[in-house]
Design goal:
The chain is an alpha/beta fold. 41% of the residues lie in helices and 17% in strands.
Length: 348
């Protein structure tokens, strides 16, 4: 009836269909499931993880305000911020909590972090970040893709806006592009308004595949974790490997921070090889048979990729990290993966 239509338009919680750009029935089923899994009120499904990040950054980037972003975040997120945020936005990057504390001012509109950071796998103290943001009245947004809600309870740590590239572990089959952003209705209001304005809602068939992935998320992550730990521990013992950047390992410098903030670790980590020439570096990567060359981790298959942190690309001086290689340990037999790595390391 007309009265029902009018009531729907006045309805504050976005949990029922009203118009296509808000989402379909399948969209809201996924959003309710994800919000419940994350222990919060609301969720926004978008076309990709980067869309979710771009929507959050754009919605809070007001002229005259300050946006603070952790320096080693997902590279496309940093590039978007540098190139696309509106004129008049005071965009600053920080590497440590102390730097954030110095940069946080009363005109700060958003603090954006990633836990752990892409490629470098650093884990920031989320509690301290939240405390600093609260001091200046700014919300905290966090790229929580690595841990997923299964291993990382972002909202319990005080994060206002938690963003997931559901393309990866949540979908789990490397056949979906999907972003999911969670938080209270109030915290997500600016982002939701931006998504509606730009028509950024995820397609219903993609949301159905996201629901499919949620059904097996827990069991898949347990396998990813067990296999990754076995492979990472083996790599630590190899003479060609300087270090393994995987917070679940006691040798990792952020291991204690990981234990305090996470309940597990999935299959993604980075290693540093001993110095070698470009030919040997390329030969190691290209001789792997069970690790496909690819960037979109989180699926069932193992992947490998040369790793070059964005901060090293002329934007800011950084220590020499050496030869970095990123691995995603999939659902294959870990002993087979170790055998593949052993053969490839012979050429380094």
């Amino acid at each position: 009836s007309l009265d029902q239509l009018r009531e729907a338009r006045r309805d504050t919680p976005f949990d029922t269909p009203r118009y296509g750009i808000y989402g379909t029935s399948t969209t809201f089923e996924l959003q309710r499931a994800m919000a419940e899994l994350c222990g919060t009120e609301s969720c926004i499904a978008t076309g990709s993880g980067l869309t979710a990040i771009a929507a959050t950054l754009s919605a809070h980037a007001e002229p005259g305000g300050r946006v603070l972003i952790q320096g080693d975040v997902y590279e496309p997120a940093r590039v978007f911020a540098e190139r696309e945020l509106r004129d008049g936005v005071d965009l600053r990057f920080f590497e440590t909590v102390d730097e954030l504390d110095a940069l946080a001012t009363a005109d700060t509109n958003l603090v954006f972090i990633e836990v752990p950071t892409s490629l470098t796998m650093r884990i920031i103290d989320v509690g301290r970040v939240v405390a600093i943001a609260r001091r200046v009245g700014a919300p905290v947004a966090c790229d929580s893709t690595w841990g997923t809600p299964r291993f990382f309870d972002a909202h319990a740590l005080g994060v206002d806006i938690s963003i997931h590239a559901a393309t990866k572990y949540i979908a789990g089959h490397s056949d979906v592009m999907l972003g999911l952003t969670t938080g209270t209705y109030e915290a997500l209001a600016p982002t939701r308004e931006w998504c509606v304005r730009y028509g950024s809602t995820a397609a219903p068939d993609v949301c159905w595949l996201g629901l499919r992935g949620l059904r097996t998320l827990s069991v898949r992550l347990e396998r990813h974790q067990a296999s990754a730990l076995k492979v990472a521990r083996w790599l630590e013992q190899q003479p060609q490997v300087v270090r393994v950047l995987y917070p679940a390992l006691p040798s990792d410098p952020d291991h204690e921070s990981w234990k305090a903030q996470f309940s597990g670790a999935p299959g993604l980590f980075t290693i540093e090889l001993r110095p070698c020439d470009e030919a040997a570096y390329a030969r190691f990567i290209e001789s792997l048979e069970l690790f496909g060359l690819g960037a979109s981790w989180g699926g069932f298959e193992s992947l490998v990729l040369p790793a070059l942190p964005h901060a090293r690309r002329g934007l800011r001086p950084q220590p020499d990290w050496g030869r970095l290689v990123r691995f995603h340990v999939g659902l294959e037999d870990p002993d087979d993966l170790i055998g593949d790595l052993a053969s490839a390391l012979e050429g380094v």
